[in-house]
Protein: ADP-ribosylhydrolase ARH3
Amino acid sequence: MLLSKFKGSALAALAGDCIGARYESMWRPVAYQTLLNLEENLKSAEKTSRRSLHYTDDTEMAHELAKSLVENGKFVAKDVASKFTETFFESPPYRYYGPHVRNVFEKLEKASRFSDLFGPASEQFDGQGSYGNGSAMRVFPVALFCHGNQELLEKLAALSAKLTHAHIDAINGAKLQASAVEIALSSSDGSISWLEFWQKLKDLIDKLEVDVPEKVYTNKLDMIKELIAREEVASVHEFEDEVGTGIKASEAVCAAIYAFLMCLADRQPSELSSLSKVQQVVFYSISLGGDTDTIGTMAGAIAGAFYGDEGLPSYWLYAFEGAEMARDLATKLHELNEKKNRDISQKQCRLS
Ligand code: AR6
Ligand code: MG
Structure:
């Protein structure tokens, strides 16, 4: 079951990115019927073996991070930074990187030759660091790598974020998103209510937002709880006003969490009921509009880690660029996790 969850997380993250990227520049809600029509078109990918949708920077960076973790068996900041930088400079234009992250890669490569790994990110935006969602959009491999070790998860989520995003909201966003994936890996459908899931995230944010200028995640998580508990489902416009769906980590991470929790609470729109649970989460998250590829990929990573890959349509493996890579990296991260557990139990046997 755990392998299915690892693969589900990586594949649904890919799907959310590839599908969401179609609507990224619209900056308005996406109609359910538009998404259902796209899904219908994807079905032909299996017959023609034609990759129909490209992934963007979200997946590119997540896969580079995963490769580094797999190759090294640990987090090596310099290797992650050089992998991010090399792929960035080789990227086709349709990866659509964030507008300012190029500065970081140029400084990492040219100015410091990877000797100062965290300096360039901390110089962004007059020394504030970026609060963009780029730190959280790529973090799910950290959750898979650290499964079962929350302390390590928070440490690596922060380190991986700080290579490009030094603002506290971007760092906390990466920790929150990785933790949501970890809670999803550690629980199953029927074993946890939406409110229990929400409470675990709130407990984490209460701990993280002690010494911050503004408790952005605390406020947004409280609002999410209120919106889900409400009798009438909030309109996307109200959600946009109250929580947001933009390029800030605090908005996109909370939008992804909201979409997942709405489905866990069985409040997903009836128009999507013909789809599997994971598909419902991915499509519902994209329907919110805004930064759709990044909200889609983060909601997908959580939903896939929760429901596993069984509910994913087989044509998803053919429809998206990078699907084999996603499955392969998830399998390798799972193997690492199994090995770590074997090593721990052997050590315990020797000690007893
Ligand atoms: N002050 C003012 N504006 C800021 C600040 C700040 N401290 N931090 C971020 N912004 P960036 P990303 C604004 O460039 O997070 C792609 O589509 C500023 O307008 O670091 O890596 C990805 O797929 C800045 O350009 O990019 C993601 O969805 C923007 O936030 C998305 O872009 C994004 O920060 C974000 O990528
Ligand atoms: Mg993107």
